[in-house]
């Protein structure tokens, strides 16, 4: 978000959500009204010797390549900027783009809607706002209905060279991640794995001891409580302009959601 | 009027140091009908443009064709590409960037550990080259090596953006210089002039020690300045004068005992030539003394 414009026309910014300061240097951002700006960086010839550390946001400026009066005419404090990087196909069925977190979840919901062929549930799709800040969209969105169950669809961490431990075993293209968490309903998580096995949908398990860090946490405590689960598309480089996912995982996430709904879910009996 | 279409083509052409072919072809295609030209052993384009009259003094304009970038140094078992820098790059600009790899311009991204999983200082620290990698979407070394290879050039995949006041692109350094020279070559000049579209090479990753740099030359001599030079990592420049004395009278000029620390040195030949001066260079050598 634009928080200041100085007399030379350089623009001061602060982050909205968990933006990674390490990926901002020399990155192209675009404003709501289509102006492109580059995050300022030092020419290496004039380096300040701090190459090992990301420039803190407090010292980060954006250059729109316009005279100060033009910048002030076309941009206002509070205007928002997004990563300008374009979606790009990689090898196999992988793609890279900013905001795959969680637009690929949006895609999975839309695709699931095509695959649902039951009236066992009244299905509500919630495309929520403000997840990246305080999950406020999901709070009011869930409150609007008397829900029996909810599945939050998000992205989660996949293996990459600098990630080890439990997420070091999650692979792109090996299916959606089904979360087991103390906040989530265990029977739903269990049923999701059973449905996946039955329909030959690949899946991976994501045990999270505490809160999931997704909308699922907020929906589960809506009103007097909602049974909830979290299904995630595996992703690399979350919150950068170059997030990477596999298409197959989005399709399989949609298939898993539809299969769960079509069979009547975990509490049919 | 600036021909932005040509500036766009020049800036988006991929040509890191030592791999300037695409840029060279683009420039030759533009200038070939307007002047005499040749390409030397290093890949420089040397152009002589006749003006309306010969000049008393000989002027050379020079711009470099190469840009900074990266080179693939290893491919991991999981199909990620390891790399090192070609030319001077501030590592802070690399995490999260889109790149293209090799002759087929395979798209890739420079990955970074998700901020959510970083602990303490890690969330602000820029990984060393040895820790960084490019993701082209390969699942294995085998799949990666079908489309990319060791030594492949890596270029920024940056947009070309312009507004009424400014231009934002990769490799403006120094393709805009190349553009200015192309326009001059295409125009009618008052006097004869020479143009050099040059390649540059920055040598890196050297073992510490004492090195010798040498070059063989022949020619008519008479240049007002003609010297072999080396710039070490500390910025100190050592030079050795070159004096040619005739056709095919090859001689070797060398600088010995060049101390290289931190693995980096820049070598080259600098010349200020007068009208009618001629000559050539060959057999550039740079080696660690035993």
Q: What does the model show?
A:
The complex is a heterodimer of chains A (269) and B (290). Helices cover 25% and strands 22% of the residues of chain A. By secondary structure, chain A is of the alpha+beta class. Chain A has 2 domains: 2-83, Peptidase M42, domain 2 (Elongation Factor Tu (Ef-tu), domain 3, Beta Barrel), CATH 2.40.30; 88-262, Zn peptidases (Aminopeptidase). In chain A, a hairpin with a 4-residue loop joins β3 (28-31) and β4 (36-39). In chain A, α2 crosses α6 (247-262). Chain A is elongated, with a radius of gyration of 21 Å. Chain B has helices spanning 4-12, 21-31, 141-145, 172-186, and strands spanning 36-39, 45-49, 60-64, 69-75, 81-86, 98-101, 106-110, 134-135, 153-156, 161-162, 167-168, 193-198, 202-204, 209-219, 225-232, 237-241, 246-260, 264-272, 279-288. Chain B is built from 4 helices and 19 strands. By secondary structure, chain B is mainly beta. In chain B, 36% of the residues are buried. Chain B is globular. Classes of the chains: A alpha+beta (269), B mainly beta (290). At the A-B interface, β7 of A face β7 and β11 of B.
């Amino acid at each position: 978000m634009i928080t200041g414009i100085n007399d030379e026309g350089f623009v001061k910014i602060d982050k909205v959500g968990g933006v990674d300061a390490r990926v901002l240097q020399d990155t192209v951002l675009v404003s709501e009204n289509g102006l492109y700006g580059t995050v300022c960086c030092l020419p290496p010839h004039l380096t300040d010797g701090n190459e090992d550390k990301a420039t803190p946001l407090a010292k980060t400026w954006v250059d729109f390549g316009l005279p100060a009066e033009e910048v002030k005419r076309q941009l206002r404090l509070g205007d928002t900027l997004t990563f300008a990087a374009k979606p790009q196909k990689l090898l196999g069925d992988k793609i890279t783009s900013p905001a795959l977190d969680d637009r690929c979840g949006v895609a999975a919901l839309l695709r699931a809607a095509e695959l649902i062929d039951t009236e066992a549930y009244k299905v509500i799709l919630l495309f929520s706002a403000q997840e990246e800040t305080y999950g406020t969209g999901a709070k009011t969105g869930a409150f609007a209905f008397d829900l029996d169950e909810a599945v939050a669809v998000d992205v989660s961490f996949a293996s990459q060279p600098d990630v080890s431990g439990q997420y070091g075993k999650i692979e792109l293209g090996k299916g959606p991640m089904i979360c087991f968490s103390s906040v989530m309903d265990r029977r739903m998580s269990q049923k999701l794995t059973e449905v996946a096995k039955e329909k030959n949908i690949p899946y991976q398990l994501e045990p999270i001891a505490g809160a999931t860090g997704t909308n699922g946490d907020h929906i589960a405590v809506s009103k007097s409580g909602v049974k909830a689960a979290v299904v995630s598309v595996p992703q690399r480089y979350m919150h950068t302009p170059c997030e990477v996912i596999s298409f197959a995982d989005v399709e399989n996430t949609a298939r898993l959601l539809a299969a769960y709904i079509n069979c009547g879910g975990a509490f049919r009996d | 009027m600036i021909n932005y279409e040509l500036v766009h083509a020049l800036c988006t052409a991929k040509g890191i140091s030592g791999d300037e072919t695409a840029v060279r072809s683009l420039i030759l295609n533009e200038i070939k009908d307007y002047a005499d030209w040749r390409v030397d052993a290093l890949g420089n384009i040397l152009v002589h443009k006749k003006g309306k009259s010969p000049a008393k003094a000989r002027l050379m304009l020079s711009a470099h064709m190469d840009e900074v970038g990266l080179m693939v140094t290893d491919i991991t078992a999981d199909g990620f590409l390891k790399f090192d820098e070609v030319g001077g790059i501030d590592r802070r600009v690399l995490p999260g960037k889109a790149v293209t790899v090799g002759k087929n311009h395979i798209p890739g991204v420079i990955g970074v550990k998700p901020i959510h999983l970083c602990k303490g200082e890690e969330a602000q620290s820029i990984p060393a080259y040895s820790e960084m990698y490019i993701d082209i979407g390969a699942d294995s070394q085998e799949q990666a090596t079908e489309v990319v290879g060791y030594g492949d050039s890596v270029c920024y995949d940056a947009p070309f953006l312009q507004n009424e006041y400014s231009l934002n692109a990769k490799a403006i350094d120094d393709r805009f210089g190349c553009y200015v020279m192309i326009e001059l070559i295409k125009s009618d000049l008052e006097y004869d002039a020479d143009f050099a579209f040059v390649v540059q090479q920055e040598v890196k990753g050297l073992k510490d020690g004492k090195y010798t740099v040498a070059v063989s030359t022949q020619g008519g001599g008479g240049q007002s300045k003609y010297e072999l030079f080396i710039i070490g990592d500390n910025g100190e420049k050592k030079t050795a004068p070159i004096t040619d004395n005739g056709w095919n009278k090859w001689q070797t000029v060398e600088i010995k005992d060049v101390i290289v620390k931190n693995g980096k040195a820049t070598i080259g030949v600098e010349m200020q030539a007068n009208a009618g001066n001629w000559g050539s260079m060959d057999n550039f050598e740079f080696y660690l003394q035993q």
